[in-house]
Amino acid sequence: MNSESVIKWDDNSRPKWFSRIPIDEYEKLAGIGYTPQQIAMYYDVNVNDFMFYFSMLNSPLKYHYDRGQLIQTAREGISMADAAAIGENVTQAQRLDKLRNAIEFKNNVSKVFFDDLDV
After folding, report:
1. How far apart are CA 65 and CA 54, in angstroms?
2. Contact 51, 36 (CB under 8 A)
3. For residue 10, what are the contacts with CB-CB under 8 A and spacing of at least 6?
4. Biggest alpha carbon–alpha carbon distance for the chain
5. Distance between CA atoms of residues 22 and 24, nearest Å
6. How far is 109 from 111, CA to CA, in rounded Å?
7. Helix intervals (H) in 43-89
8. Which residues partner with 57 through β-bridges?
């Protein structure tokens, strides 16, 4: 694939509906676990149109979606770490260990398959 076939986000040609999406709320929806398609429906945006802009290189839709998921996972992790550090909640310690393993696995997969990509 050559670089000419990659479509990059351009603030000058962003869709009109983008300005009516509150980014904080959008990130929360992503963190809760809604798919991009479901979020498009929530904001009453044509799903195909939304996904076109979502899949662009440097898309703020993709960035804020990923950021929302990261923020939610991080907040849960911090909460679990705090509870586990006190030693009062064994279940939280187990959940934290499971979260760490999931994050480590995802990072390792990304490193093997996407380490050379600047995305």
Report:
1. 9
2. yes
3. none
4. 57
5. 6
6. 5
7. 47-54, 60-86
8. 8
Q: Looking up tokens 């911090």, which residue turns up? A: 78
Question: Does the predicted model carry a pTM greater than 0.85?
Answer: no
Quote the pLDDT of residue 119: 46
Averages of pLDDT over runs of 10 residues in the chain (119 residues) are 69 91 97 95 97 94 96 88 75 78 79 60
* Residue at 49: amino acid letter: D
Q: What pLDDT sits at residue 64?
A: 97
Sole residue written with tokens 């093997």: 112
Task: Tell which residue, 24, 23, 10, 21, has the closest CA to residue 53.
Answer: 10
Backbone angles phi, psi at 85, to 5 degrees: -65, -35
**Residue count (the chain):** 119
Q: List % helix, strand, coil for the chain (3-state, nearest 5).
A: 75, 0, 25
Give the pair of three-digit tokens for residue 50. Answer: 């939304």
